[in-house]
Design goal:
Largest sheet: 7 strands, mixed
Radius of gyration: 36 Å
Distance between the termini: 77 Å
Helix content: 40-55%
Strand order of the largest sheet: 1-5-6-10-9-8-7
CATH superfamily of the largest domain: Bira Bifunctional Protein, Domain 2
CATH topology of the largest domain: BirA Bifunctional Protein, domain 2
CATH class of the largest domain: Alpha Beta
Shape: elongated
Order of helices and strands: HHHHHEEHHEEHEEHEEEHEHH
Structural class: alpha+beta
């Protein structure tokens, strides 16, 4: 029994010396001196089977070992706690600067876009990023076999006939299905397309969709709304130009360009020496889209528009590569501080 106590002492002292945290010391205390199953406790309980002389001798040795271990544990705990405190607060070290976080530039631009349209009476609405074929294509006048499915969108398909939405236009369908006219909404969100990741494209990016449907809505209302947005976003002296375009869900359709913010319209590399930079697509909601949601195109009309947030941000902040937004480079991101 004395040999067992000697081996136990050697083992426990070695483990206490190797402990790195107070929590480890507590586990050792419970393991060796715990009331229910501590190894030293079990030794003391086994004294009943010994002779009176052995019981007295072993009991004294076990109790002495217990007192010694308690003292060693306490000293080691004090060392660890003192060492941790000195490590956490070292008065000889220089102070550490605390860096304050800021909102991402994409978030800043998205919020600014929503703020401008909210000032014109548009309500912010969000929609799901996983969509059905109906909302992403069919209801938007893009039936199966339509060339726009391959030419305008590269899609990420999921099991069960679902897909990651390739634009935020499905939100306008969901809104019109559940809301009678008048409808005036703005829908920001993330979209997915099988685009190459280069200086001007990303497979994951952000869009903002706008929709206004009511009696008597005209293309003049669309032009006026987007002119106000452009001047609020880029400055009151910005030039605005609408050019004919094509989108399956609007007719007529147009692209909105603004005078180049870099050269002021004189012509430079950014605007391909045209003096204009395209920022969004728009048009009057196609009558078939209105029928698909249960609206009567003979009674109501509307306009819709969609823009890429990254493109707006690149123009607004004079950034030449979309990949900067996703690099997680703090040297880049810390430049965008709210004023």
């Amino acid at each position: 029994m004395q040999e067992r106590l000697a081996l136990l002492k050697k083992q426990v002292l070695a483990e206490i010396a190797a402990a790195k945290t107070p929590a480890e010391l507590e586990r050792l205390r419970v393991r060796y001196m715990g009331r229910k199953a501590g190894e030293l406790t079990l030794v003391l309980r086994s004294l009943k089977g010994l002779s009176e002389e052995e019981r007295r001798s072993v009991g004294q040795a076990a109790n002495a070992l217990k007192d010694e271990l308690i003292e060693v544990l306490q000293k080691r705990r004090t060392q660890l706690e003192t060492g941790s405190a000195n490590e956490a607060i070292d008065l000889t070290l220089p102070g550490r600067k605390r860096f304050v976080g800021y909102r991402h530039p994409i978030t800043l631009v998205t919020d600014r876009i929503v703020e401008i349209f909210a000032g014109m009476g548009f309500e912010e609405i969000l929609g799901p990023e996983i969509e059905t074929d109906w909302y992403n294509f069919e209801a938007l006048n893009i039936p199966k076999g339509h060339p726009a499915r391959g030419e305008m969108f590269g899609n990420f398909y999921l099991p069960g006939g679902l897909l990651l939405r390739s634009h935020t236009s499905p939100v306008q369908i969901r809104v019109m299905e559940n809301m009678p006219p008048p409808v005036r909404v703005i829908a920001p969100g993330r979209v997915y397309r099988r685009d190459a990741f280069d200086s001007s494209h990303s497979p994951v990016f952000y869009q903002v969709e706008g929709l206004y449907v009511d009696e008597g809505v005209s293309f003049a209302d669309l032009k006026g709304t987007l002119e106000v947005f452009s001047q609020e976003m880029f400055g009151s002296d910005i030039g605005v130009r609408f050019s004919p375009s094509y989108f399956p869900f609007t007719e007529p359709s147009a692209e909105l360009s603004i005078s180049c913010v870099i050269c002021g319209g004189a012509g430079c590399k950014v605007c391909a020496h045209t003096g204009w930079v395209e920022i969004l697509g728009c048009g009057m909601v196609h009558p078939q889209v209105l029928r698909n949601v249960g609206y009567d195109p003979d009674k109501v009309t509307g306009f819709a528009f969609g823009m890429g947030v990254e493109r707006i941000a690149m123009i607004h902040y004079r950034i030449d590569d979309i990949r900067h937004f996703y690099s997680n480079d703090l040297r880049f991101l810390r430049q965008f501080r709210e004023t």
